[in-house]
Amino acid sequence: MGKISQGILGGVSGAVGNVIGGSWKGIDYLRIKPSNVENPRTEGQVNQRNKFTATLEFLQPNISFIQKGYKNLAVQKSEFNAAMSYVLNNAITGSAPDFNVDYQDALLSRGSLSAPLNASFDLSTPDEVSFTWVDNSTGGNANITDKAMILAYNPTKKESITDLEGAERSVEQQTLTIPSTYSGDDLHLFMAFISADGNITSDSVYLGTGVAS
Q1: How many CA atoms lie within 13 A of 44 on its CB side?
Q2: Residues in CB range of 1: below 8 A, 6 or more apart
Q3: Residue 17 has pLDDT above 90, yes or no
Q4: Among 11, 138, 185, 186, which is most exposed with the fewest C-beta within 10 angstroms?
Q5: What local confidence, expressed as pLDDT, does residue 2 receive?
Q6: How many structural domains comprise the chain?
Q7: Quick check: is 37 in a domain?
Q8: How far is the C-alpha of 134 from the C-alpha of 119, rounded, in Å?
Q9: 160-212 pLDDT, tens per residue?
Q10: Facing residues of 199 across strands?
Q11: Does some domain include residue 166?
């Protein structure tokens, strides 16, 4: 891909022959169409596509969480692409051709803020998830005013419920309302913190899985 710092006649858009022009984040660029390959479905290509598909299916329902959690890593790329790169390289498990996301390693937020301490959840009450944690604002760079970011991921329905500006770190608990249609579904729970000004986030923590009441 060739970037054009000043644009060509105001910028190029679309394809001319085997050259494609476009703009991304205000940067004009040109790229060459890839040549056709005789076998576009080699074992390596299929495996990579399967890994990509598993990652994409996990991240798409969680995009709002990612947009906050990866904000500081979106350098010359989107927050979503930064998360895609991280999960693909650090959180894919399984054997060819079946690959899955290892939720324990799949960070939905990354940052230098102190992460949640001793966080846990309770799914015993219908239509809600109760999150608890320990106030660790006396250590590291944590602050009592940091806001909880909580998420319940439902892989069966391929959707998530989130609260991105939740209770303060000092409160040590929060309840997340989930749809009644989640009853009986497996949920995966994640949590992180974001500073009150929204500038710093923590790494997310995977709290585990449970069945919605």
Answers
A1: 1
A2: 29, 30, 31
A3: no
A4: 138
A5: 47
A6: 3
A7: no
A8: 7
A9: 999 999 999 999 999 999 999 999 999 999 999 999 999 999 999 999 999 99
A10: none
A11: yes
Mean pLDDT to the nearest integer, 85-90: 97
pLDDT at 129: 98
- Spatial neighbors of 46 by CB under 8 A, at least 6 apart, are 96, 97
What the block records as the tokens of 206 is: 């995977």
At a CB cut-off of 8 Å and minimum separation 6, what does 213 contact? 123, 124, 125, 126, 127, 183
Same-domain check for residues 130 and 199: yes
Which DSSP symbol is given to 38?
A: S
What angle is formed at CA 89 by the lines to CA 97 and CA 152, rounded to 5 degrees?
Answer: 85
Residues 139 and 197 in one domain: yes
Residue 162's CATH number: 2.60.40.10
If asked whether residues 55 and 6 sit together in one domain, one would say no
Same domain, 145 and 199: yes
Model confidence pLDDT, tens digit, residues 133-154: 999 999 999 999 999 999 999 9
Question: What range defines the domain where residue 144 resides?
Answer: 117-211
d(CA 139, CA 63): 30
pLDDT class of 43 with cuts at 50, 70, 90: confident
* 206 and 122 co-located in one domain: yes
> Where does the chain show beta strands of DSSP type E?
2-4, 14-16, 19-24, 27-32, 92-95, 98-101, 117-122, 128-134, 147-154, 159-163, 173-177, 186-194, 205-211
**How far is the C-alpha of 123 from the C-alpha of 140, rounded, in Å?**
30
